[in-house]
Design brief:
Elements (H helix, E strand, L loop, with lengths): L2 E7 L3 E6 L4 E6 L2 E4 L4 E4 L3 H18 L6 E4 L4 E5 L2 E2 L2 E8 L3 H6 L6 E11 L8 E2 L1 H6 L5 H24 L2 E13 L2 E5 L7 E5 L9 H4 L5 H13 L2
Helix pairs in contact: 1-6
The structure holds thymidine-5'-phosphate.
C-alpha cells in the first residue's frame, strides 16, 4: 500500500492518502493534549501503544457485529482504514462518574450511575466541543434521525462488548468517546479506542490506566498505556 499525501493532521493522529481512493493510512503520534489543547506534551511510544490497542479492539468489535473503518494494521504506528466522512459529533458513554460529569454536575468521582449516560458533543475545537442533544444534531443538519439512532444503538452495543472485553482483563471501563463516519452510505465506527479516549481503572485497586495520568499529573504515564497494551494484546 503506497502512502501518498498528508491530508489531515490532528492532535494525536495524521491521515495520509493511499493509491486506493477508498482507503487512508491513520498514523498515531506520541503527542498528547488535554483541556482542548491547553496542556501539551508527548508520551514516549504512545502512538505505538494506541495503534496496537485500537487495532485489537476494532478487530474484536468487528467480529461482534460492529462495522469499523479498520482494514488492517500496517505497521507499529499505522492502521489502514476506510476513508469515511466523519460525523461531527463525539459520542460518549459513562458507566461511572468521572471527568466533566463531576465538574459540571457536582458528582463525586467514582460514583456508580443508575444507568449508563449517553452524551453527544459537537466536534468543533473552536467552540470547545460543547455538549449537544439529538435535537441539536438533527436541527443543525449534523446527522439525520436514522443516523443518530444507528449511532446510539451501536454505541450501547459497543459499551456492552467493551465492558466484557475489559472485565476479563481486570479493567473497569469507566467512560469512553467514539467517533463515527459515513462510508458508502453506511454508518461505521471510526477514529480510535485507546487510553486517550477511555477511562480505564484497574479492578480492585482503582489504579488509573489512562490519559487521566497525563491530564492530572499522576506520573508514570507511559506505564499506564503499556499495562493496557500488555493486557489487551497478551504481550
Ligand atoms: P470528559 O469526562 O472529559 O467529558 O471525557 C469523557 C470521556 O471521553 C473520557 O474517557 C475521555 C474521552 N474524551 C475524548 O476522548 N476526547 C475529548 O475531546 C473529550 C472531551 C473526552
Amino acid at each position: 500500500m503506497e502512502k501518498r499525501d498528508k491530508i489531515y493532521e490532528g492532535k494525536a493522529k495524521i491521515l495520509y492518502t493511499t493509491d486506493n481512493p477508498d482507503l487512508l493510512i491513520q498514523y498515531f503520534k506520541d503527542d498528547a493534549t488535554a483541556g482542548n489543547g491547553k496542556k501539551k506534551g508527548t508520551i514516549d511510544e504512545k502512538g505505538i501503544m494506541n495503534n496496537g490497542i485500537t487495532c485489537k479492539i476494532f478487530e474484536y468489535l468487528g467480529q461482534n457485529g460492529i462495522p469499523t473503518h479498520l482494514v488492517k494494521m500496517l505497521s507499529e504506528r499505522e492502521m489502514l482504514i476506510k476513508k469515511v466522512e466523519i460525523v461531527k459529533i463525539e459520542v460518549i458513554i459513562r458507566n461511572r462518574a468521572a471527568g466533566s460529569l463531576c465538574r459540571n454536575y457536582g458528582v463525586e468521582e467514582g460514583k456508580t450511575l443508575l444507568c449508563p449516560i449517553l452524551e453527544f458533543c459537537y466536534k468543533e475545537d473552536k467552540y470547545n466541543d460543547p455538549l449537544m442533544n439529538a435535537y441539536h444534531i438533527k436541527a443543525l443538519g449534523i446527522a439525520t434521525e436514522q443516523e443518530i439512532e444507528k449511532i446510539s444503538a451501536y454505541t450501547f452495543k459497543i459499551n456492552e462488548l467493551m465492558q466484557k472485553f475489559f472485565a476479563v482483563l481486570k479493567i473497569e471501563l469507566i467512560d469512553f468517546k467514539l467517533e463515527f463516519g459515513r462510508y458508502k452510505g453506511e454508518i461505521i465506527l471510526a477514529d480510535e479506542i485507546s487510553p486517550d479516549t477511555c477511562r480505564l481503572w484497574e479492578v480492585g485497586t482503582g489504579v488509573r490506566l489512562d490519559k487521566d495520568r497525563f491530564r492530572n499529573d499522576l506520573g508514570n504515564i507511559k506505564e499506564g498505556y503499556q499495562e493496557v497494551l500488555k493486557r489487551v494484546t497478551g504481550k
